[in-house]
Amino acid sequence: MPQISFNTPFYFFTSVTHHRLPIFSTDKMKDILCGAFDEARRSSGMLFFAYVVMSDHFHFITDGKRSPSDSLRYLNGVTARRVIDHLKENNHSSSLEKLRQAKKKDGYQYSVWEHHSDKFLLTSESLLMQKVNYINQNPVADGLVERSEDYRYSSARIWRKIPLDDEPLRMDVDQIKWRAG
User: How many CA atoms lie within 13 A of 36 on its CB side?
Assistant: First the structure.
């Protein structure tokens, strides 16, 4: 069980969509993103502690098993691949066109995420809880819901210990080793 500290930090990530396009404005696209996050968790062994998916960005807290850059690159890579695959498979050519970039030497021609994502190290329980509350209140601050637990695509219900039977994404909050007292 990880315990947050200076030597074993957790990571707070924010990734913004290319040109702040509202790619995740539908539940279908949010479900695809959550499925990709779950795939990333299973294949990487990362632990997930908090998240929210908004129409043009996500916030995430994960453990420090990997470097911050590697963790974020992995999350963004898996999610971008799933989103682009879905758009291609369902002939969403106008959406793909908005994501098009000059073809890169590695063969990529679409970009889901901006390349200046935020990475922040969390080194204390108080800082962790500050970011968890920020994440969970994001939909309230954006005017989408009045209560954070009413927004389907966030960890708010899990932190309040009232999860849905069909949560879009499982969190590993029970794996955190909290300091006594």
Answer: 21
Which residues, including other chains, have CB under 8 Å from residue 169's CB and lie 6 or more apart? 34, 37, 38, 48, 51, 153, 155
Neighbours of 162 (CB within 10 A): 9
**Each residue's pLDDT tens digit, 109-132:** 778 888 777 889 999 999 999 999
As a residue count, the chain comes to: 181
Task: Let me know if residue 81 belongs to a domain.
Answer: yes
- Specify whether the CB–CB gap between 15 and 76 falls below 8 A: yes
Q: Looking at the predicted structure, is the pLDDT value of residue 102 above 60?
A: no
156-176 per-position pLDDT tens digit: 999 999 999 999 999 999 999
The CA angle 43-44-47, to the nearest 5 degrees, is 115
- Compute the distance between CA of residue 159 and CA of residue 71 in angstroms, rounded to an integer: 23
Give me the CATH number covering residue 79: 3.30.70.1290
The structural domain count of the chain equals 1
